[in-house]
Amino acid sequence: MTRSSMLRRAALATTCLAALGVAGVAMRAPVAEASVSSGALRSPSTETAEAPEMGQLATCVASWYGAVGEIPEGWPTASGEPFHRLALKAAHNSFKFGTKVKVTYQGKSVTVTINDRGGFGAPRCLDLTYGAFTKIANPDLGIITVNYEVVP
Length: 152
Prior knowledge:
Order of helices and strands: HEEEEEEHE
Strand order of the largest sheet: 2-6-3-5-4-7
Distance between the termini: 55 Å
Strand content: 25-35%
């Protein structure tokens, strides 16, 4: 098999994995989580950055997923829970499933439950469902810088 043939096969495999929503998982760079309220940046020394402690405020970039037709309703998330685009849920690369996170943007807040993983890295740390994102911002913005904290 020639090098160009192998590269074509690798590109095709990556395209197929991307369609399934798993691209970037194996080749993801270390996650440089977020800036913490103390002002110090978390080190990207490990694949999953340390999560802020309960009640500790952090800042990162959030996006949304679940456009009509992007993910079928009921499709299993990484936690096994069925996906619902209007549910108040989110993906995070390292928080335990079931973790509740209060996300705030320009004075509007929403509390989401982590039930999925993302193939994203710094500076993005949260991928909100469409329903959760619309509670705090216009989805046309695409990505926003948010404050977030783990809540009980």
